[in-house]
Amino acid sequence: MEREIVSLGQVTTDDGLFFEGAAEPVREEVEKAERKGLRLGETLYLINDRLLDWYGLAVLFLVWELGTRWGWLDTQFFPSPTAIVAEGLKLAAKGELHLHILASVARTFAGFTAAACVGVPLGFVLGGYFPRLTSFLAAVPTPGTD
What we know:
It is extended and about 70 Å long. It is mostly helical. The protein contains 5 helices and 3 strands.
């Protein structure tokens, strides 16, 4: 569908009005683009392309919030974003938020370290650096194969 640019504040389509009253940030982007020599339609396309990433994030949070409110998600494992923010604000007000953040970082680091301690030696074995061990593991049947 081809867009026709009528003025800075109005973009129309074949079906009628598409966008009216450009917001101030959009107006600033348009003015920057006009100084660079881009047309208004190209500029609006670039702005929409930039915002596309944010649309997906907004939809994710909306589905997450609605999923917890409507019972699609178990709130014990997936608390709603508003509940997370509310609890974070409570912990920050009490002065305990940094303790919880440090505990989470410590658990993450411990998990990464454990995975690396198992994964790196296993990578060497599967990479063929230890032929006897590699041949021993080759005899182990793979689940799901006959």
